[in-house]
């Protein structure tokens, strides 16, 4: 396939030759250079981290000029400011972010898809998402990808060893002040929240004005304590016996849209330490059950933990205010609920009350199997079985009896009496006392207001904003920042390794580490363990490459020739790293962050490069892509500069001279070719 005209080929050939002319000798004949030239002549190109830097720049310039018609690129290219295209094709909408595979977020999709459509040339841009191997992306996934809101900007600030050492070295600057500055967007957010609070109108009701805040606080504490106490009570043998198959319960679970609903317990589900309840809920028809299932799935996937907690609290507070502490929702027509049913799972925390009513010898597994069968489209028209219909009739009767106050529930006093644990007994009794307070309508006059529910919702909106302001205030406080686990753990590691004195003064060892910007602890230990002096420049380059290599060959343990210097280097570096990691593990920390681990995959390659071997010969020794090798060596040069500066702190001119020799041995030819953007 050929997409360029003869004139365009001539321009590409001339430009490519001009750019490659700066390379020396055999570098001009590298397979990647020859392949890329052939591709560009035909109007194609490739752009990713494995491509040589000079070739990536050639591709970028040719693409901007319109000579490259089809470009295969990673998302990094799409971040370019001036890289528009007529059409953007997504080979996949799933990416690996260094930790796991996930779907692109809306911001990433928009950034890449936004390249489609050249300003002044195209009226529209085309974006295509490929569906390979007969797999079609789910509509809700695509809708979220294309129409979802961009991710909120959040501080990616991390406490690092280098940052701690440099801040401790400057007496005039407190660490907490530096940490506060990293949360500058939180300060702006707090200001906007305070403005939002000021703009909210105060509740203007003579009945609710004085007592609604107090009543809301009491409701909030009661509901939270009830959620926390039921998982504990469920572990008490006597109470666990009450939660048997066939027991009628009142539950409140916002995920399944259950607002103090009377349900039938089918069985208790145990998954490790987590316990939940499988329940039967009466619904009007099977379509309603399907919609509720879909809502439950969406709720779990789309909400953050904070939002889910807030909605759970709101559902329970409003239901408690409406129906009472142990009341149930009143169905306007109990017969309508006999048409069908739904089986779902709720956490133990969703329990509001346990009724002294149960269905004996309940065939729960049969009910669940019938429900699962009814969820299959071709069986949805089947009627509810006779046995299940009888169960639904009993459920309807219990609901009616509950409305008429003819059904007893287990009181907190009765539940407390069944608790063998003394502390739990006291907690349940205390919850019972709080319940009695909430039932006192004279204590909380807001309950007498005709618009009580509306006013309670308005107050909830204000409480939500107030809580956000309080959380931000605490997050920005000195106490919260200094007591952060990450800060304390990393400081303990530095003190244990003698980088920092007990009085938090930086030691000589710490001052050396301050000069190093990558793997500072490991390199400092290698310097002070005298691992550098006895090695020639090529071996030192190989040793330091273990800290800058990002290529992973996939082999668990690389095999080098028996007695080679590479085995010795690996053992030496590994021994020091193991010692550091054991200290960090004691303090629940780590030495190397994700993506900065030591790798030995390019040690031999760097050794030969520092020894003067041509790049073309080096490519015969490894499967690593050219771009990754160049990146490793370029980063290695930066590390050499850091170690040289550290040598000056130690007062070791021999180390300074040796690092200059290492740097001189690697700074040559294609690896350090000048950028086209500054020299063409």
From TrEMBL:
InterPro entries: Helicase_C-like, P-loop_NTPase, RNA-DNA_Helicase, Ski2/MTR4_C. One of its GO terms (molecular function) is ATP binding. The keyword Plastid does not apply. SMART domains: DSHCT (SM01142), HELICc (SM00490). It catalyses: ATP + H2O = ADP + phosphate + H(+). CDD domains: SF2_C_Ski2. Keywords: ATP-binding, Helicase, Hydrolase, Nucleotide-binding. One of its GO terms (biological process) is nuclear-transcribed mRNA catabolic process, 3'-5' exonucleolytic nonsense-mediated decay. GO terms for cellular component: Ski complex. Residues 1-168 form the Helicase C-terminal domain. Transmembrane segments: none annotated. This is Helicase C-terminal domain-containing protein. The lineage of its organism: Eukaryota, Metazoa, Ecdysozoa, Nematoda, Chromadorea.
């Amino acid at each position: 396939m050929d997409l360029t005209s003869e004139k365009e080929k001539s321009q590409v050939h001339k430009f490519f030759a001009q750019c490659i002319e700066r390379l020396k000798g055999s570098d001009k004949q590298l397979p990647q250079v020859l392949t890329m030239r052939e591709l560009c002549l035909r109007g194609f190109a490739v752009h990713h981290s494995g491509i040589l830097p000079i070739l990536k720049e050639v591709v970028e310039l040719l693409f901007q000029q319109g000579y490259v018609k089809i470009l295969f690129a990673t998302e990094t290219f799409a971040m370019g400011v001036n890289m528009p295209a007529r059409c953007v094709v997504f080979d996949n909408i799933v990416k690996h972010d260094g930790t796991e595979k996930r779907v692109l977020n809306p911001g990433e999709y928009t950034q890449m898809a936004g390249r489609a459509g050249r300003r002044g040339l195209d009226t529209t841009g085309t974006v295509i998402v490929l569906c390979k191997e007969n797999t079609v992306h789910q509509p809700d996934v695509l809708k979220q990808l294309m129409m979802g809101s961009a991710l909120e900007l959040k501080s990616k600030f991390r406490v690092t060893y280098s940052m701690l050492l440099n801040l401790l070295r400057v007496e005039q600057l407190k660490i907490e002040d530096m940490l506060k500055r990293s949360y500058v967007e939180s300060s702006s957010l707090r200001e906007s929240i305070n403005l939002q609070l000021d703009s909210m109108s105060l509740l203007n009701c003579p009945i609710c004005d004085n007592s609604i805040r107090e009543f809301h606080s009491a409701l909030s504490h009661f509901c939270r304590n009830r959620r926390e106490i039921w998982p504990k009570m469920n572990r008490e043998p006597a109470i666990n016996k009450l939660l048997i198959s066939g027991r009628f319960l009142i539950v409140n679970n916002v995920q399944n849209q259950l607002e103090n609903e009377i349900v039938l317990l089918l069985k208790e589900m145990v998954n490790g330490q987590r316990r939940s309840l499988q329940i039967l809920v009466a619904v009007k028809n099977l379509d309603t059950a399907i919609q509720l299932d879909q809502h439950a799935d969406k709720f779990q996937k789309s909400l953050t933990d904070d939002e889910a907690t807030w909605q759970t609290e709101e559902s329970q507070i409003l239901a408690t205010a409406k129906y009472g502490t142990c009341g149930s929702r009143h169905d306007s027509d109990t017969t309508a609920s006999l048409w069908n049913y739904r089986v779902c799972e709720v956490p133990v925390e969703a329990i509001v009350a346990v009724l002294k009513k149960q269905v004996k010898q309940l065939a729960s597994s049969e009910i669940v199997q019938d429900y699962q069968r009814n969820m299959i489209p071709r069986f949805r028209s089947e009627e509810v079985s006779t046995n299940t219909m009888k169960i639904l009739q009993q459920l309807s009767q219990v609901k009616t009896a509950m409305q008429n106050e003819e059904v007893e529930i287990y009181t907190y006093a009765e539940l407390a009496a069944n608790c063998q644990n003394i502390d739990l007994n006291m907690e349940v009794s205390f919850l019972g006392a709080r319940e009695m307070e909430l039932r006192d309508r004279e204590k909380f006059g807001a309950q007498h207001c005709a618009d009580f529910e509306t006013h309670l919702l308005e107050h909830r909106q204000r409480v939500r904003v107030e809580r956000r302001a309080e959380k931000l205030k605490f997050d920005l406080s000195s106490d919260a920042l200094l007591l952060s686990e990450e800060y304390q753990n990393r400081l303990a590691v530095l003190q244990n390794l003698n980088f920092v004195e007990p009085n938090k003064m930086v030691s000589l060892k710490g001052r050396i580490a301050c000069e190093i910007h990558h793997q500072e602890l490991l390199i400092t230990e290698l310097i002070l363990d005298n691992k550098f002096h006895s090695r020639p420049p090529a071996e030192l380059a190989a040793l330091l490459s273990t800290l800058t290599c990002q290529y992973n060959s996939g082999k668990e343990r690389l095999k080098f020739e028996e007695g080679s210097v590479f085995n010795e280097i690996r053992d030496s570096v590994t021994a020091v790293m193991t010692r550091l990691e054991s200290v960090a593990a004691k303090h629940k920390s780590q030495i190397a962050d994700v993506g900065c681990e030591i790798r030995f995959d390019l040690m031999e390659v760097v050794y030969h490069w520092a020894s003067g071997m041509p790049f073309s010969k080096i490519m015969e020794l490894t499967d690593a892509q050219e771009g990754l090798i160049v990146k490793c060596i370029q980063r290695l040069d930066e590390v050499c500069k850091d170690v040289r500066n550290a040598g000056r702190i130690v007062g070791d001119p021999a180390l300074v001279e040796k690092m200059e020799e290492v740097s001189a041995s690697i700074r040559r030819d294609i690896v350090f070719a000048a950028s086209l953007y500054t020299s063409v």
